[in-house]
UniProtKB/TrEMBL annotation:
Belongs to the expansin family. Expansin A subfamily. It comes from Daucus carota subsp. sativus. Keywords: Cell wall, Cell wall biogenesis/degradation, Membrane, Secreted, Signal. This is Expansin. Residues 177-257 form the Expansin-like CBD domain. One of its GO terms (biological process) is anatomical structure morphogenesis. The keyword Lipoprotein does not apply.
Amino acid sequence: MASFLQTWSIKPLIMAFLVMNLSKSIAVQIYRPGPWSLAHATFYGDESASATMGGACGYGNLFNNGYGVDTAALSSTLFKNGYACGTCYQIKCVYSPWCYKGSPYATITATNICPPNWSQDSNNGGWCNPPRTHFDMAKPAFMKIAQWKAGIVPVMYRRVPCVKRGGLRFTFQGNGYWLLVYVMNVAGGGDVANMWVKGSRTGWISMSHNWGASYQAFATLGGQALSFKLTSYTSRETIIAWNVAPANWNVGMTYKSWSNFH
Ligand SMILES: *[C@@H]1O[C@H](CO)[C@@H](O)[C@H](O)[C@H]1NC(C)=O
């Protein structure tokens, strides 16, 4: 009886101790700003930024999906095959008479690629050709740092944590046997290194990077509630978003979670 009591009373303590240490070791690896570097910036579209819809990251309608007008297309050097999708930057104009006084910065999220154009010289129009680091900003974002008449300006930029309201959002494509998920509204580092899906009748299934901010699993997941586990590319933090989608989930739908990176 005594040993039973002892085991019984000590178990919660051990559990609490383990949980405390576990949460300490995975504790909030907060992403901090990187160093400033030199690049250039141009703009595209008009003041409404309607031309920013449907970029290579797959975010679709940027207004509905929480990105607003403060977005940019990155040259392939910065885009990193889509791993830069969702990362955030402060950008300020430098060394140009077109810069606004006091070098105000715009904070943008990477939502698209600015592809190379090899029929243009890298120093004359081919601004996005490798190895150039270039931001083709939505016009409203560009207008926060310089007069748009400038066309192109030198800038200083740095990676910063993404400040997002609410939890991760998951937009579904595919079918009952192939799930393609676009991950949006990612806070912290803003990027995703690895992703897993778990149906209510499966274990964790590793998803592969498709393109942009999309991840896929070839598995039978129809009719099951779905949870997701994600690791941040930048901070390596892992989080789980439990029961994001109900058993009657559908493609074309966006499901919101309560979880997000720090
Ligand atoms: C690439 O540059 C050429 C020359 O300026 C231009 O005619 C063409 O439209 C550009 N291609 C793209 C895809 O922008």
